[in-house]
Amino acid sequence: MKKIISTLAAVMMTATSLASTAVSAVSIPVLNEYSLSTSTVVSDIVVDDITVPAGSLAVTVNISNNTGFSSSSTKIVLGDAYAPITDENGMLAVQSGNVIGDSCICGVTNGGLVFVSTASGEDNLYNGDMFTFYVSSNTSSGDKTIEIVNTESEDIATTMRNAASTMSLASGWFCVGDVNNDGYINASDASAILGAVQINQGNKIFVDVANDNLSYYFPDEYNIVCAQAANPLCGAQDDDGSGEVEDKELMEGLVKDSINKRDADDILVYYGLAATKQLKDYPNQSDGFCGRTLYFKGKN
User: Where would I find the H helices in the chain?
Assistant: First the structure.
């Protein structure tokens, strides 16, 4: 599975290659080139149960010369003439385009910052529109800038209790949501889950079955410790009434549950909130347990 490579990096690599081989007068296309297009919504539409009124601006992110990717993240800055259209929890009204198709997609906003992440079980190879989000606009005043500022956002540390630093996990420990065990929770972890579900013909995978067949569902490239890492929406509950789901209760919930597309969706929510510096809102936005670190003693 591949993350999308930013346009700037691709251009720099092309320039270096040309210099080293002394090729001249050759037109080299920019790889993974992003562009923006806008249009006016002519009548009310509903996107993810969010009403987008007529007169709103549809902002579409496009890609050309696509080299293929299974996960992506795009950070966009809006001028103060625009306000993202969201639900009551601040989740963006966003639609997949022909490039993304049925991939998981999540949009999170914070002020004039828009962050959209996507994940798929296989590489997306098409050119065209990746996704569209919607903004209300005040065309009479304010800054009308809409700019893509990053197409490969910084990695987000996995531990919710200490989100400012990467946690180096000793052998046997795992972090819920960090499926590939690289110290970060991001869209590539969601892609790993979707790849496993695709291997299982689109069906959920029980955690104990996945643990018995880790290399089948999660190829070695993912370096997964245990299937529990891929099950943030496990439904664990505070059974002893202590006021929080304790580690033992969480592990029991993880073992009994199954892995499915909803777990990938939850990882993108966590990632988006972290990327927009709103990670503290994750417990209010989700019933998931991304970021919780537990010890895996072996198959249960």
Answer: 7-21, 187-199, 207-212, 214-217, 247-256, 261-275, 282-285
Instruction: With CA atoms as reference, report the closest residue to 94 among 79, 109, 82, 80.
Output: 109
Beta bridge partners of 102: none
CA 8 from chain center: how many Å?
Answer: 21
Strands (E), 43-139: 45-47, 50-52, 57-64, 69-78, 82-84, 94-96, 104-110, 113-124, 128-137
Q: Say whether 107 sits in a helix, a strand or coil.
A: strand
**Residue 80: both structure tokens together:** 């103060």
Counting Cα atoms < 13 Å in the Cβ hemisphere of 86 gives 19
> What is the tens place of the pLDDT at every residue in 197-242?
999 999 999 999 999 999 999 988 788 889 999 999 998 988 888 8
DSSP at 187: H
Angle at 182 between CA 177 and CA 188, to 5 degrees: 60
- Region of residue 177 (left: phi > 0; alpha: psi -120 to 50; beta: else): left
Task: Report the DSSP beta bridge partners of residue 173.
Answer: 295
CB of 219 closer than 8 Å to CB of 157:
no
DSSP secondary structure code for residue 282 in this structure: H
CA distance 161 to 23: 52
**Tokens (6 digits) for 160:** 């919710």
Give dist(CA 193, CA 90) in Å, integer. 25
**Predicted TM-score of the model (pTM):** 0.84
